[in-house]
Amino acid sequence: MLKCTQAVEDANTMHTSKLGWWRRFSLFMHLLMCHHCRRYVRQLKMLLGAVKDMHGEASDEEVERVLKRLRESSGS
Ligand SMILES: [Zn+2]
User: Fold this and answer.
1) For residue 76, how far is its CA from the centre of ligand 1 (angstroms)?
2) What pLDDT, on a 0 to 100 scale, did the predictor assign at position 29?
3) pTM of this prediction?
4) CB-side exposure of 28: number of CA atoms within 13 Å?
5) Tens of pLDDT, residues 45-60
6) Which chain residues have CB less than 5 Å from ligand 1, an ion?
7) Domain total in the chain
């Protein structure tokens, strides 16, 4: 079972690089059971989607900036 910090880390990694199928599966299982992380991932997707709507694909730098803001707002 993943810890929340690990799940959040993996969720972030999914957007910037490739996770192995086992890590993705573990993350998926964690998200099924953990509504904190589900909410985090939902916010993440929403924010990244908003950036994408503005001007195509989000750059790695933009993704990083969004993630940083999310981490700050979630207080971890
Ligand atoms: Zn969690």
Assistant:
1) 13
2) 93
3) 0.60
4) 7
5) 888 777 766 666 677 8
6) 4, 7, 34, 36-37
7) 1
Sign of the CA dihedral with 20 first, then 24, 26, and 27 last:
positive
- Ligand 1 centroid from CA 63, angstroms: 21
* CA distance linking residue 7 with residue 36, whole number of Å: 10
CA distance 76 to 15: 19
Give ∠ CA 9-26-44 in degrees, rounded to 5: 40
Task: Print the domain residue range for 43.
Answer: 4-73
Mean pLDDT in residue range 21-29: 89
Q: 56: which 2 tokens?
A: 């195509």
Distance from Cα 25 to the centre of ligand 1, integer Å: 14
Q: Average pLDDT over the chain, rounded to whole?
A: 83
**CA separation for the pair 26, 5 (Å, rounded):** 13
